[in-house]
Amino acid sequence: MKKMTHMLAGAMLLSSGASVMAAEDATVAIGDLTWTGAQAIGHVIQAVIEGPLGSEAKIVAGLSDGSIIAAGMDKGDGSADVYTDLWMPNRQALWDEFIDGAQTVGHNSPYLGTQKMYVPSYMADRITSMEDLKDPEIAAMFDKDGNGKGEYWAGDAGWKSTRMWQVKFKSYGLSELWEPEVLPDATFKAQLKTAVQREQPIMFYYWTPEWVHAAYDLTAIEEPARTEGCEDVDLDKEDWLEASSFACASKDAEIFVAYSKSLETRNPPVAKFLSQMQLDPAVVNGWILKIGRDKLDPRDVAEEWVAENMDVVNEWIK
Q1: Hey, what CATH topology would domain 113-246 get?
Q2: Is 139 exposed, middle or buried (0-12, 13-18, 19+ CB in 10 A)?
């Protein structure tokens, strides 16, 4: 009987040890957001998990819808564990539901980004502010399909910022002269390259950090300064365009890495790492330049950076 007790205890100890190992080896599912900065961060996260942390991670191809990523993090079943580039306040509804509300999603400390409307600098003598866009002659310069309205690129269909810019143009009284183009980022970048080569009119939303600012000479269009009540948006309502107003410059965005709190039990070292990951906008921009402008493989960029910056990485994983 005593021998059997020892055998059972040993089996329980082995089982417990196996459970701990399984927990720390749980594969981490990283979202596949479409913009270059998010992709760069995702590959760096994967490189840290698979390198210094000695665990497993995968970037889930096609997992590019932020709402689906957030719902997966909330479920905690390993279908989606990391939202690599959560822009606030663009994603306020997700924050309210899962971070402040359900408290199933954690995050790190943010880095800062900007969101503005741009033209190539060869057009800066004609357009300096949103007020200039009220001129029908200016709008006609951007009318590509001959319907009497100028086009601007508002963003990708899945981005909340795409709705934000439509609200802004409505709030500035520009809806009669302008209409949004809603296209994938890669499609727009091809259009931008062609337009700049030919010095054609093109107007578009963009943000920092991003490599287009290094590739092209761009000028931001001035917007009115922020005042109390100038921004009142609910981009998740069914009638979001009618219900929202936004007639001033955007605040600097706070950009987070968000993760499923289920990792705190499924893979505690990874959860700790993600909560402590502190990104420098200049470093992120360096990754973006190599991947977006120089066309280097994002995995190679990430692994090389991690190998050369273990002093930073060790602060994230300590």
Answers
A1: D-Maltodextrin-Binding Protein; domain 2 (3.40.190)
A2: buried
